Amino acid sequence: MATRSEMTFDERLLGPVTNVADFIWGGTWDGAQVLPFPPLAIVLLGAGLWFMIGLRGYPITNFWPALTNLFAGRKKSGAGEISPFAALSTALSGQVGTGNLAGVATAIALGGPGAIFWMWITALFGMALAFAEGSLAIRYRETTSNGTYRGGPMSYIMMGLGPKWTWLAIFFCVGTLISALVTGNGIQANAVADGLNELFGIEEWLGGLIVAVLVFVVIIGGIKSIGNVAETVVPFMAAAYIVMALIAIALNIGDIPETFGRIFGGAFNAQSASGGFVGAAVILAIRAGVARGLFSNEAGQGSTPIAHAVAQTDDPQFQGRMAMLGTFIDTIVICTMTALVILTVEGNFSANGQPVQHAWQDGQLQGFAVTSGAFAAAFPFTVGSVPLGTLVASIALLLFVFTTLLTWSYYGERAITFIYDRFPGSTLGGEKMLLMGWRVLWCVAIFVGATRESDLIWRMGDIANGLMVLPNLIALLLLSGVVFALARGDRTAGPTHTADTPEEPEEY
């Protein structure tokens, strides 16, 4: 074992960071149970339940109208920057990323197959939270002096709750900047560099450089450029991935009953499996499912309303339905496809020198390698020297990650400009200079993140997500009465706190 002096900086940091992440999401410290429940998971599920009850099951009863929004959402029906569908695609491009491929595998490794059940529950309640976020994003959004629309939690905190809550908006923005650089950048950059290395043998630093340049070309054009790319790429990549996953599952359809038995059984019982997974208690399943579910769909985190706020619609309820549909697509559809492939597909895997049936039982595979291994077992014939399944999973990962990097750069922009605008004398010209600096920093961070240790980044991501969730949930709960009224069709529900100021934006 290496001494502390022989350990790298990342290795020394991993222990403390893991403890903080485990405490937030699992109530443990140094592997020992400190709290009898996972704190943030309970808070998130509790808030989701509150909105589900207050909305009277709106995400379920209005699911079909939400689907019809997909067609109506391509048309402009109000003020904004991009179409409602493009806003959904942009939000989805931030949601659908590493969490849908590597995150699902990590959830199963941490909490067993039962974690998938809790991921579903997170998504179900998350749809209610997503409706709240999307509707408030339209109800409370700001305009700059040149007529540009923008918004998000920082806007509905300031305009819905008033200037005395400025501290909460700043808290959220600081959390957003940290989360953007860690989860929206570092984790994604690390995954895309690994994918390019596996597929083409490109060194990780070079893969990071290539992606950084490609991202810069798009984000230099702002939200409209990001929206155009997202609207084109996201529907295609999601549909293609779902089709390939369905084929893989169909080829192993006989294992589906056993798969669902493991998911539902593991959600409520301590369980064990042959291979590289040791018995997991229910609390681990809840912690893993909720944490990875949030990482994937971002419901309650406050990131997606930043994208929905620029939709060209004046109907908060309409965009709220679009937002909740994004959570459904991300987790109930795409994450479920990944989970079923991982848990169902049979292949030649091993654990402790013994053969096992499934990739998730293989003790040598971790994260994305589990997903890639399962797809490779489903489609073993090679293209060049690479199994078709590996090619499919890797290309999906590259596309998912690339679009996530685009969208999260914009989330970071909104956070940093909000903080800048709190200073007297801030101007649009100053904002533009700040944004250019942020975009350069963003692409440098991609290059750096491509070579970092993935374990440390994932743990830091859990902490960073929590820094966004807490202030956003406080705001959502305080504005829950407004959300319930918006769901009933009252477009002007709630107070509007505005003030004429010489700084941007004009609303507060």
Q: Between the first and last Cα atoms, what is the distance in angstroms?
A: 57 Å
What is the CATH class? Mainly Alpha
Uncertain segments are: 271-280
Helix content: 55-70%
E-strand count: 8
Output the helix-strand order.
HEEHHHHHHEEHHHHHHHHEEHEEHHHH
Number of helices: 20
Q: How much is the average pLDDT?
A: 84
Radius of gyration: 22 Å
Widest sheet: strand order? 1-2
Structural class: mainly alpha
What's the architecture in CATH terms? Up-down Bundle
What kind of sheet is the major sheet? 2 strands, antiparallel
Number of domains: 1
At the third CATH level, what is the topology name?
A: Amino acid/polyamine transporter I
The coarse silhouette is globular
Q: What portion of the residues fall into strands of 2 or more residues?
A: under 5%
